[in-house]
Amino acid sequence: MTYRSVSVLTLVRGRQVHLDHLIAGLCAQARMPDELIVAFMQDVAPRVPPDCPFPIRLLQIDGDALPLAKARNHAADQAEGEILAFLDVDCIPDRNFVKRAIEAVDQLPDGVFLPEVRYLPGNPDGWLDHTQRAPDVTKLEWAGKRHPAKPDLSMCATRAIQDFGEIWGLAFILTGKTWDSAGGMDERYVGYGAEETDFGRRLERAGAELYWLGGTVCYHQHHTINKPPLQHFESIVRNATLFHECWHEWCMDYWLDDFARRGLIERDADKLTVIRHPTASEIAKTTQGPEVRFS
Questions:
Q1: CA dihedral 70, 75, 76, 79 (to 10 degrees)
Q2: What letter does residue 294 receive in the DSSP assignment?
């Protein structure tokens, strides 16, 4: 296997325990990353352990709203690795994550790779072993559940994906060269939604290739979700409208359709109109219990 340097990049606002688990997963890798870049969107830097087997660099990202596209761009700009492995702070990578990233790029240099994600239930005791320094692999394998809309990659090395709309921010891997060819992410997207879908279109336009990546699993740590995410109503509407202006089609149709059914918006092929904003009571009623792992 060719030596290739790997930068793992993650974004943080809160979620200290989740970050602790992500770092523990990286410390247990079969092949260590060359660095971890933590782009934090909060006033105080998150805690990181002083004795990691790889350097950790902290970047503060300004902005009250969630500037996810901006944070990813800044992290990518600062990365020194040939390979950029974006990993959501909620994810615990299995021990093959970095190794499989390198193997995939060796085989398909222009590829963008989506590793399998399995979702964990709520667990106040966490997912580390008795040492509290490494993930408990047995517990993760037992508890992790694949999203029903995603394929089983257990017997797959790589599999081509035709629809670039599949790309998501939870975990994706590509070279810095491929990232640059797409121009990074559009920082006009602020808050929840659409910046990843827009980036997928940019990658497609740049001639990148998209693949599912088997041989590794990222375990998504539970956090409370809303179905639909009414707490992000304004940013979803704004970002969906921006996406339509850029690509002449809608994204996040599933959420927009739900908003329309609730009488919050009206939408046709060309225009979205806000009828009213959700109330605090409506938002509260969409909050899901600890047994709900994904939307």
A1: 160
A2: -
Inter-residue contact 31 to 102 (CB < 8 Å): yes
Name which of 50, 72, 80, 69 is nearest 59 in CA terms: 72
Report, at the CATH architecture level, how domain 6-220 is classified. Alpha-Beta Complex (3.90)
Per-residue pLDDT of the chain in tens (295 residues, 90 and over written 9): 678 999 999 999 989 999 999 999 999 999 999 999 999 999 999 999 999 999 999 999 987 778 999 999 999 999 999 999 999 999 999 999 999 999 999 999 999 999 999 999 988 899 898 888 899 999 999 999 999 889 999 889 999 999 999 998 899 999 999 999 999 999 999 988 899 999 999 999 999 999 999 999 999 998 888 888 999 999 999 999 999 999 999 999 999 999 999 999 999 999 999 999 999 999 999 988 777 777 6
Query: Does pTM top 0.85 for this prediction?
Result: yes
Ordered by start, the domain boundaries in the chain are: 6-220, 230-285
Q: With both helix axes pointing from N to C terminus, report the angle between 97-107 and 16-27 in degrees, rounded to the nearest 10.
A: 70
Q: CA 196, CA 256: separation in Å to the nearest integer?
A: 17
Report the distance separating Cα 209 and Cα 211, nearest Å: 7
Q: How far is CA 265 from CA 228, 242, 268, 286, in A?
A: 14, 16, 10, 17
